[in-house]
Write a structure and sequence with these properties.
The protein is an alpha/beta fold and 537 residues long. Strands 1, 2, 11, 12, 13, 14 and 26 form a 7-stranded mixed β-sheet that branches. β15, α9 and β16 form a beta-alpha-beta unit. α1 runs parallel beside α16, α5 crosses α16 and α13 packs across α15. Bound molecules: flavin-adenine dinucleotide. The site of flavin-adenine dinucleotide has 43 residues, from α1, β12, α8 and α16.
Length: 537
């Protein structure tokens, strides 16, 4: 099973990487993935994400450690497991982030990762149904389409944003993110387009690419200070896979730092405490963890208003699944949110700092935060999930044990930073302003969560602590840069050793302003070009 390149993980960045590296028939590539093949009807059907995101077969299904700034809650932290990784269970929203995010990366020392540098890689990977131009791609493997299923409640949300002065933006992934819109999604012909669908499966017939599923990487092996392969655990037991040129860790923002630490690269005192021999001290491995924090709020709508509560329940649900199976259309084609907006907490800002996810459906939020199976409300509802785009709070990933099978110890510290609390309050008040705008006020009957009695800053923050949720966007735990603390150099090589890179969402110096799948795929594209020394065509 030896190869030139061994890739650990089969997720968003890794599928692109495996495709681009194996495009050269002289190069042998092995990809090892802990999960399975990542195919099922529920994964393909976009609305199936509500079921699959927390299904142990498709998700790692971890709980984090108690979160100090949100009352000690232990958050469920799903990550995709199987070919496609998190792109297989994600909410399908396609968001690049802001051009300024990448310029900031470059200013922080990620030389070569400014917007002008990364734009060609975003463009290369996609076919955007809205058509190609100098910013958007029309020949890439990743299918990107606007939400197809429209309804009057989503239209009313867009009208309400306009009434608040938030303009309609026809392409928030283009020149400017600001405005309200129907989301662009990683959907093609009504089916989820995961990174495996787009990039990996079409390459799997190549004789020089070997994909091994059910293979959990336990650690990187070294010959002196050079990575020489990986140790994996399969049903057959423990085996090794040799790498003649490079080992590439692409296990995501929780697992890549975990694997570095299990291999002796990380904060020395922490590794020694756990009895792991230190190969190279790198204090920031696992540090700098960032994520969005979704402030879920729900309204009860007038009984006549359109809502997915009706479409996803009882006989209507059966009918809609059959309709989807027959024609790939209807409510089962919807992503996690259909309408959204990037807004400014203060009109004087030069770029948005708050994102809105809007969906005309509500679940029982009390049951959800209690960890019970999610239940749809019996009445038609509307949920708004605003979040701060560039949170200042930082968490960390550590080992909980030297056992590779152990769950890592993860603390996000959501809402720890005063700035995050201030902006979260502003975001929640904006959500209420939106619902009070004429187009939505005409549809809304009541506010069950947070509820009319929740008004002061303290009350709203208390609600945010109890009902907020992970944005599912962990990033930054193996950050690149040119300062001494950076884990990687800007070529994504692990500092202090040879023959080892990290290529996934963990390399981001700062979380991007938006959902992270598109950025992870771009990192896979650009990472591949750094490995092969080839620029995009
Ligand atoms: C529920 C959910 C909803 C989301 N919604 C959206 C959304 O709507 N839009 C958006 O843009 N982003 C969304 N995201 C985030 C986005 O999908 C991720 O940021 C992106 O997929 C991360 O890509 P990655 O390459 O870093 O890692 P991943 O795609 O997570 O891939 C890591 C892979 O490594 C494998 N792996 C881990 N450890 C090992 C090991 N030891 N050995 C072998 N294999 C291993 C995993 O099984 C996995 O397949 C969502 C994520 C989740 C979980």
């Amino acid at each position: 099973m030896d190869a030139d390149f061994v890739i650990v993980g089969g997720g968003s960045a890794e599928c692109v990487l495996a495709n681009r590296l194996s495009a050269d028939p002289r190069v042998q590539v092995v990809l090892v993935e802990a999960g399975g093949g990542g195919k099922s009807f529920m994964l393909t059907m976009p609305a199936g994400f509500g079921m699959t995101a927390n299904q142990p077969g498709h998700s790692w299904h971890y709980h984090g450690d108690p979160e100090p700034a949100i009352g000690g809650r232990r958050m469920l932290l799903p990550r995709g497991r199987g070919l496609g990784g998190s792109s297989n269970i994600n909410g399908l929203l396609h968001v690049r982030g802001q051009h300024a995010d990448y310029d900031q990366w470059s200013n922080l020392g990620a030389i070569g990762w400014g917007w002008a540098d990364v734009a060609p890689y975003f463009r290369r990977s996609e076919t955007y149904a809205g058509g190609g131009d100098e910013l958007r791609g029309d020949a890439g493997e990743l299918r990107v389409e606007e939400v197809a299923h429209r309804n009057p409640t989503n239209d009313a949300v867009l009208a309400a944003f306009a009434e608040l002065g938030v303009p309609r933006n026809r392409d928030y992934n283009g020149a400017d993110q600001h405005g309200a819109f129907y989301y662009q999604t990683t959907v093609g012909d009504g089916k989820r387009c995961s990174a495996a669908d787009a990039f990996l499966r079409p390459a799997m017939a190549r004789p020089n690419l070997r994909v091994v599923t059910g293979a959990m990487c336990r650690r990187v092996l070294f010959d002196g200070m050079r990575a020489s392969g990986v140790e994996i655990e399969t049903r057959r037991g423990i085996e090794t896979v040799g790498a003649n040129r490079e080992v590439i860790l692409s296990a995501g923002a929780y697992h890549s730092p975990k694997l570095l630490m299990l291999s002796g690269i990380g904060p020395a005192a922490h590794l020694r405490d756990l009895g792991v021999a230190v190969l190279h001290e790198s204090p920031e491995v696992g540090a700098n963890l960032q994520d969005h924090y979704i402030l879920t709020m729900s309204w009860r709508l007038d009984p006549a208003a359109y809502s997915y509560n009706r479409e996803l329940s009882g006989g209507r649900l059966v009918w809609n699944v059959l309709r989807y199976a027959a024609r790939r259309e209807g409510p089962m084609t919807i992503p996690a949110a259909q309408v959204g907006a990037f807004v400014k907490s203060d009109p004087l800002l030069d770029r948005p700092d708050i994102q809105f996810h809007c969906l005309p459906v509500t679940g029982d939020l009390d049951a959800a935060v209690a960890g019970e199976k999610s239940k749809l409300s019996p009445w038609p509802g509307l949920t708004l999930g605003p979040n701060v785009l560039r949170p200042a709070s930082r968490g960390r990933v550590r080992l909980s044990s030297p056992d590779p099978a152990a769950v890592p110890a993860i603390v996000h510290n959501w809402l720890e930073a005063e700035e995050d609390r201030r902006l979260s309050l502003r975001a929640m008040r904006m959500a209420r302003e939106l619902v009070a705008a004429p187009s939505l006020a005409a549809l809304v009957a009541a506010e069950p969560w947070p509820g009319p009695d929740c008004r002061s800053d303290d009350e709203l923050l208390d609600y945010a602590r109890r009902y907020g949720n992970t944005g599912y966007h962990p990033a930054g735990t193996c950050r690149m840069g040119i300062d001494d603390g950076a884990v990687l150099d800007p070529q994504l090589r692990v500092k202090g050793v040879a023959g080892l890179r990290v290529i996934d969402a963990s390399v981001m110096p700062r979380l991007v302003s938006g959902n992270t799948n598109a950025a992870a795929i771009m990192i896979g594209e650009k990472g591949a070009s750094l490995v092969t020394c080839q620029a995009p065509q």
